[in-house]
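Notebook, p. 212. Picked up where the previous page left off. The plan for this session was modest: take the two constructs that came back from the sequencing core last week, fold each one, and keep the raw output in the notebook itself so nobody has to go hunting through shared drives later. Recording the first one now, exactly as returned: residue sequence, then the structure token string.
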Amino acid sequence: MKIKSRQRWIAVAIFFLFMLLHQTDRLLIGPLTSSIMAEFNLSEVQMGGIVTGSLILGSIFYPIWGFLYDRFARPKLLALASLLWGITTWFSAIAPTARLFLISRASTGIDDSSYPGIASLISDYFPPQKRSRIFGFLQLSIPLGYLLGLLLALNFGPTIGWRMIYILTGMLGLFLSVLIYFGVKDIPRGSSEPELTSLPEIKLARFDLPQLMNLIKIPTLRYLFLQGFIGVLPWQVITFWSFRYLEVERNYTTQTISSIMIPAVLMIGVGYFTGGFLGDAVFSKYSRGRLYVSIAGVLFGALFLTVTLNIPKENVESFRILLALTCFFIPLASPNIASTVYDVVLPEIRSTATSIQYFLGNLGSAFAPLIAGAISQKYSLETALLSISLTAWLITAAILALSAHYLPGDMDKMHQSLRLKASGIKQKS
């Protein structure tokens, strides 16, 4: 089955809407932190533990979702994830105690780990040379979702309260589940690979445990998995604690925080989009091009974050500009690392490969908000943000350089396997 161009772009639009609204719900916890802490009388460590709980549960479910996506219809499973998003968010909204809020908020991690199905479908909808820009476009939803959540929290939190906001976002999850179920079409795995596009029918082997072991044998992928374990730490810390850092340690007003965060978040979106296009452009000339762009983004992000956090509190304009520049470089790596995974992994096991990477990322960063909370109580949030981010990014740059060393050979092996599969299918037909 070949998917029509119109159906492909309808699916991309639905994916973007799902990710935008899901990220809004997921990232609302940051700007709503102070309100939730006040209602339940929580400390920074306790609040960090609530976020850690959802990350741990999400980590557990990543391999489960990956296995299911590689075995069954991906759109139907994504619709189920959206349904779970709506239900678990409603449980969070009505939780009467801190313990029940911890349990209900942790349960949202189940649907947070459902994204590998989207990535797998995109790899089948679009050929290799276009994937990074599509991933970059979809990842625009992350900063825009945060921005939408920020606007909801600032404009409606004081009037209708954080509980009603979560009830609203839960309703959106139920709506999206119906839209995905009826609006997204599945497609044979490997449909966009050059070796398979000319075949009248594509039948690839289903995922099994021996294939899982073969993933570990790919050197590029081993380093990308390790990068995932370390590289997400700064995201979790910055996403969760930045609002409170501006509010408490820099003593900025709500209006000032908005004037700082809105351009910063928009620049994250520009960084995702630019990173995808740059990665595809350099990839067209060099097989390691996407990883070159990723390494540059990580190193410049570390440099600009260091300069930004050392700007005096009273120099708001300089802080605003430098933070926006920092936020441009931070996401350059993301769409390119996602595409690189699919450059070395066979189509029938790509959801599982992505799930393992996300699993390790969540596992590695699950305790980051909690650790940052502990560091902030002893030192400051600024110390927590800077120490965790710089350490993780410098290690990440070194790991990506090792991954780039092995990438060309692993790409050749993957395409050779596809050519063998294609020749076998032609002989049978």
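Okay, moving on. Second construct, recorded in the same format:
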Amino acid sequence: MMGIKLRPLESDRRLVILGGLFWLAAISAPLVESDAYRYVTVALIVGMFLTRPPELDDVKHDWLSWLCMGWGVYAIGRFVATYLLTPAHDAGSSELLYAFPLLFPLLGLALWLYRAHIERVLAVFFVIALALLLVTTQYATVLSGDRASPLVHNNPIHGAVGAGMVMIGAFYWFMYYLEKGFWQTRLSRLAAMTAPVIFALCLFNIYGAKSKGVWLALSFALPFLCFSLPFYINRKIGLTLAGAIGALVALAAYMVRGNLWQTAGPTITASSGMVNHDLAGTGLRALLSQTIASPDTPISMMERLKLWSNALEVFSAAPVLGSGNSWLRLWHETRYGDIGYDLLHNGYFEIVIRHGLLGLGVLAVILGAFIHRVYRAYAERLISKSAFLCYVATIGYLMVTLLSNSNNRLAIGESFFLMIGAVAFYCSESLLHDGRRIKS
């Protein structure tokens, strides 16, 4: 990535405190839905150059830095060219978030510079998370079977996605101190006391938010969390504990099975019908039309299918390169173009209608390289096992939520991708400073 020469950050206490506040704001989106992360991301990068400018000579040796920055320049250039060259000045919607990879290398360097204080920032984050959960959890509403909205978000679905991310983070925050040994420091004791409560409250709120997409994502994330336990403690004890946690969750689900089925049952039934029709050889377009027209299809599912039908029409117009910021003009010409909104409720469609299969492929390469880069840092013992597992679990969780929600167009998703990019390049810098050449 980038080689640097700098004076210790600890020499200025004010910078340490200000940096901590900025990093807290940068990771705040799972708790409070706002655009604060955008401003502080720019502030962190600008502040880095103003206070201790890095030397960037080594950037030419890292292909991943070039790929991220090259894609960012391409996304900006395409947006500007389309806007200037189309008669209607097509501006699309949420287009510039695809230029965020341009910031990944520099944000990773800013994170590396602040590495001595990350542990304390995370501790403050989880204390704030616990306080917000205790205050915002609508206990009576959830227990009555009605829908509730956790944390501070625009709707229950966004709150459920955020609660899932906080839950995964709290679990591995706890596990990190299990690696180091409990009760050795004040922070480890804080994690031992607060992380289990955060975990339980997040599960409770996710159930209460009644987001089927988050329930699906959690059905993959929870087993991953449970079966990572044997990597920390005796394998037999770990598997027993994982089984006990799984049994408790299953028992809780059984106790509220009626409410779960009331929420998800109609969608499961309609989806099963779609699968049966598909196995019978019905074409995808016809299948969507039939399911949308069926009176047995739940309204929420019908609306999503209309959105996905429209997205397929737009995608088919330019499957390789996508339609850029002209997609929104094409959207209004689709069969269900009068649906009233253009949030596609599928993160992958959001990508391919703009940048086609090429864009999806490039972003998949970047993400795969990120995971490999972080794994290398873990293998070289430059980051903890908990950090690596948390990285993988959170990515997997969010990728599943993208199947039914456009979380990459929300504050949660935008800030998340900025952070996973920053962590990957943090690992790049750690590998370089450890004297090892980046090969991935």
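Notes on construct two before I forget. Residues 9-255+347-433 form one domain.
Flagging for discussion at group meeting.
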